[in-house]
C-alpha cells in the first residue's frame, strides 16, 4: 500500500524514500566556481551556471524506477513489456532463431550496414501497418530531422501544430527555402484558416506546383490528447483537390502499441493510410525497445537515404536492435498485449472516475487550484490515452510534485520551456502493470494535498507550504541539500 493520507505521508517522510532522495540529490542547482577552470570549460560552466540559477537544470537521474518500489507513473514502458520480462523472453528467443548473427551491423546502411534480417523486418513492418514501404532508423528524433530537413523542396510550405516535438522543429529549421506556419493545437478551424492563408499567399502552392507538408502527432506527449486527423485530412482535401499537394507527416511516437488494431497506431485505427504520406513510429515507448521506422512510399524512402544526412551518415541498426523491435511486434499479436491495452483503458477510466467523483473536485474546478484538461468530456471519447496531465496553479507546481513523490508515486513535473509558459504540469502515464488501487491512490494523494491548501486558505493563510513541504524542507536542511528538484 502507498501512503495517501496526510499522516501516512508525513510518517513516510521520517525515512524518505529512495525516490525522493534520488530526485532531490541528483543535481545541485546552485552555481559552481569557475575560476580555476581552463577557458574552454569555464565558458561552458558559466553557461550551465546561468541555467542552474533559474533552477531549470536538466539532469540525468538515478534509475529510481528499477531501484525502489515507487509506482511507475512516468516511464515509457507503457505496456510493461520490460517490467514484465515479456520482451526479454521474446528477444532471447528471436536471437536463438538467428544463431549466427553478428552483434554489430557492419557499417552505414548505404555501404556495409545492410543485411537480409533488416530488410525482412522492414517488409514485415510495412505489411503490418498497411504501408507501401518502411525504413528502420536509430530513433524517431533522427527520423524527424531527416524527414523535415531533406524532403521539402524550395518553395514548399511547412504547416505544423503548435505542440509538435522538438525533433520536428529541428528538422524544419534545417529545411531549405521553405516557409513555416503553425496552427493552433488540435484546432481544425485554425488549420483551415492557416491553409486558406497559405493558398492565398503562395501562388505556386495555389497553382499546384509546390506542396504543403503538415506536421502532426497522433497523441501529444505533454497533453495526452488525440489529433483530429480525419477532420484535418478532409480540410486538406478541400484545398488540394486532386493535386495531392497537401500531405501529412504523422508522428505516432505515443500511439504505437497503445491504440489501433493490434496497437498499430492512429493512422491504422482511422484507416487513413492512403491519405498520409509519412508515418513515424518510435519504438522507445510502448514497444519497449529503441529505434524507429518511417512508413512511406518507395520514392520518399529513396529520398531519405539520398538526402537525409542523419540517416546516411550513421551506422545502420544492428540485428539485436532490430530483433528487439521484431519481438515487440510479435507480442502485439498476442492476447497478453490486448489485455495490456485494455488495462490501460481501464486505468484511464479509473483515474477520471475517481477524480471527477471526488467531493473536492467541484471546488478544485471553481478555484482553479489545478486543472485536468482531459477530464472534460472523458466519458464521450471513443478511447482514452495513457497520458493525463494535472496542471496546478503555477505557484503550486513544485510542491504538488514533491507531495506525490513523497507518497512514492513516481511522476514528472514538466516545466516551461518544455510546455508553454504558465502551463507547467504534472504528467501522469498509466502502465499495464499499474493497479487500480495505485491509480486511485494517486488521485487521492492529489486531493489530500488540495484539501490542505483549501484548509489553509479557509483560515486566511496565504501559504503554499503544506505539512509535507515543511517536512521535506526540514529534511533538506538536516541533510544540507540545497537543490530544488
Ligand atoms: C512526439 C515524439 N516524437 C519523437 C520522439 C523521439 O523519439 P525517439 O526516442 O525514438 O528518438 C519523441 C520522444 O519523446 C516524441 O515524444
TrEMBL record:
Domain Aminotransferase class I/classII large span(s) in chain numbering: 72-445
The keyword tRNA-binding belongs to this UniProt entry's keyword annotation: no
PANTHER family: 8-AMINO-7-OXONONANOATE SYNTHASE, CLASS II AMINOTRANSFERASE/8-AMINO-7-OXONONANOATE SYNTHASE
GO biological process, one term: biotin biosynthetic process
The keyword Transferase belongs to this UniProt entry's keyword annotation: yes
Lineage: Eukaryota, Fungi, Dikarya, Ascomycota, Pezizomycotina
Cofactor: pyridoxal 5'-phosphate
Database matches in InterPro entries: Aminotransferase_I/II_large, AON_synthase_class-II, PyrdxlP-dep_Trfase, PyrdxlP-dep_Trfase_major, PyrdxlP-dep_Trfase_small
Single GO molecular function: pyridoxal phosphate binding
Organism: Orbilia ellipsospora
Family under the similarity heading: Belongs to the class-II pyridoxal-phosphate-dependent aminotransferase family. BioF subfamily.
Keyword field: Pyridoxal phosphate, Transferase
Protein name: Aminotransferase class I/classII large domain-containing protein
Amino acid at each position: 500500500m502507498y501512503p495517501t493520507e496526510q499522516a501516512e505521508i508525513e510518517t513516510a517522510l521520517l525515512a524518505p524514500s529512495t525516490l525522493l532522495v534520488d530526485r532531490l540529490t541528483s543535481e545541485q542547482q546552485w552555481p559552481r566556481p569557475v575560476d580555476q577552470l581552463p577557458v574552454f570549460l569555464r565558458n561552458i560552466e558559466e553557461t550551465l551556471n546561468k541555467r542552474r540559477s533559474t533552477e531549470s537544470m536538466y539532469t540525468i537521474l538515478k534509475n529510481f524506477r528499477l531501484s525502489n518500489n515507487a509506482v511507475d507513473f512516468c516511464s515509457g514502458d507503457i505496456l510493461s513489456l520490460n517490467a514484465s520480462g515479456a520482451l526479454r523472453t521474446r528477444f532471447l528467443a528471436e536471437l536463438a532463431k538467428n544463431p549466427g548473427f553478428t552483434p554489430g551491423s557492419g557499417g552505414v546502411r548505404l555501404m556495409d550496414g545492410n543485411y537480409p534480417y533488416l530488410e525482412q523486418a522492414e517488409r514485415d513492418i510495412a505489411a503490418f501497418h498497411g504501408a507501401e514501404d518502411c525504413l528502420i532508423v536509430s530513433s524517431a528524433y533522427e527520423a524527424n530531422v531527416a524527414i523535415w530537413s531533406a524532403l521539402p523542396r524550395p518553395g514548399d510550405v511547412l504547416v505544423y501544430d503548435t505542440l509538435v516535438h522538438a525533433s520536428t522543429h529541428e528538422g524544419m529549421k534545417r529545411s531549405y527555402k521553405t516557409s513555416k506556419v503553425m496552427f493552433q493545437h488540435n484546432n481544425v478551424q485554425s488549420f483551415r484558416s492557416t491553409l486558406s492563408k497559405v493558398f492565398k499567399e503562395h501562388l505556386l502552392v495555389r497553382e499546384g506546383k509546390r506542396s504543403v507538408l503538415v506536421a502532426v502527432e497522433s497523441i501529444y506527449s505533454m497533453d495526452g490528447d488525440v489529433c483530429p486527423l480525419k477532420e484535418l485530412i478532409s480540410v486538406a482535401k478541400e484545398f488540394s483537390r486532386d493535386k495531392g499537394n497537401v500531405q501529412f507527416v504523422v508522428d505516432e511516437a505515443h500511439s504505437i502499441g497503445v491504440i489501433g488494431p493490434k496497437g498499430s497506431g492512429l493512422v491504422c485505427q482511422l484507416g487513413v493510410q492512403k491519405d498520409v504520406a509519412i508515418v513515424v513510429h518510435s519504438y522507445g515507448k510502448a514497444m519497449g525497445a529503441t529505434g524507429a521506422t518511417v512508413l512511406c512510399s518507395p520514392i520518399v524512402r529513396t529520398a531519405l537515404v539520398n538526402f537525409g544526412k542523419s540517416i546516411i551518415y550513421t551506422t545502420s541498426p544492428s540485428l539485436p536492435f532490430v530483433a528487439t523491435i521484431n519481438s515487440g511486434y510479435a507480442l502485439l499479436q498476442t492476447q497478453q498485449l490486448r489485455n495490456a491495452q485494455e488495462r490501460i483503458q481501464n486505468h484511464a477510466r479509473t483515474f477520471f472516475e475517481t477524480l471527477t467523483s471526488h467531493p473536492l473536485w467541484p471546488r478544485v474546478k471553481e478555484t482553479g487550484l489545478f486543472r485536468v484538461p482531459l477530464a472534460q468530456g472523458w466519458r464521450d471519447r471513443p478511447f482514452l490515452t495513457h497520458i493525463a496531465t494535472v496542471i496546478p496553479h503555477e505557484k503550486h507546481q513544485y510542491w504538488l510534485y514533491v507531495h506525490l513523490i513523497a507518497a512514492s508515486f513516481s511522476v514528472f513535473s514538466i516545466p516551461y520551456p518544455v510546455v508553454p509558459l504558465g502551463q507547467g504540469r504534472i504528467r501522469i502515464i498509466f502502465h499495464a502493470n499499474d493497479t487500480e488501487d495505485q491509480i486511485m491512490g494517486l488521485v487521492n494523494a492529489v486531493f489530500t494535498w488540495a484539501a490542505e491548501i483549501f484548509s489553509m486558505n479557509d483560515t486566511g493563510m496565504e501559504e503554499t507550504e503544506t505539512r509535507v513541504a515543511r517536512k521535506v524542507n526540514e529534511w533538506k536542511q538536516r541533510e544540507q541539500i540545497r537543490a530544488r528538484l
